[in-house]
Write a structure and sequence with these properties.
There is one protein chain. The two termini are 22 Å apart. A 4-stranded mixed beta sheet has the order 1-4-3-2, with helices on both faces. A 4-stranded mixed beta sheet has the order 5-8-7-6, covered by helices on one side. The protein is built from 3 helices and 8 strands. It has 154 residues and is α/β, with parallel strands linked by helices. The longest helix is centred in the N-terminal third of the chain and has 10 residues, at 14-23. It folds into 2 domains: 6-71, Roll (2,3-Dihydroxybiphenyl 1,2-Dioxygenase, domain 1); 91-141, 2,3-Dihydroxybiphenyl 1,2-Dioxygenase, domain 1. The protein is elongated and about 50 Å long. A hairpin with a 6-residue loop joins strand 3 (49-56) and strand 4.
Length: 154
Amino acid sequence: MKKIDHVNIVVSNLDKAKAFFTQLGFSVGDEGILEGEWISAIVGLENVSARYTSLSLSGLGVNLELIEYETPPSGHDPMMSKANQLGYRHIAFVVDNIDETVQDLKGKGITFLSPIQTYPKTGKRLAYFYGPDGILLELAQYPNLADPEEPKRV
């Protein structure tokens, strides 16, 4: 393994999800339609027809890939957004100033689960919020980083 290439998120409305992530600062990359036997074989579903958008943050090196399935239709797990459920939990984004970022996002109508919290062991400041379809996301600000690209993980 060399690196994580992308994180794929299935959404109910690709256009709304794309708009949400672009207001967080992501740039739109490749977009297209996924159909045919090759995609059905890869995902293990019959008669796949879907649209996707690839999004990136400058310097991140890992893309988000949003996908909306037309067929077969996607289901919604009402417990998916709960932090204690098995499987995918959240994507965390490192920010320089969490106070300013939270205020900016609140101004765009984004609701946070709580005020900014501090992990006492490391001093990491963090806040969770929901994206489209209840996608759980985190903002993280690490104290006194010599290299903000390589934070200590918590």
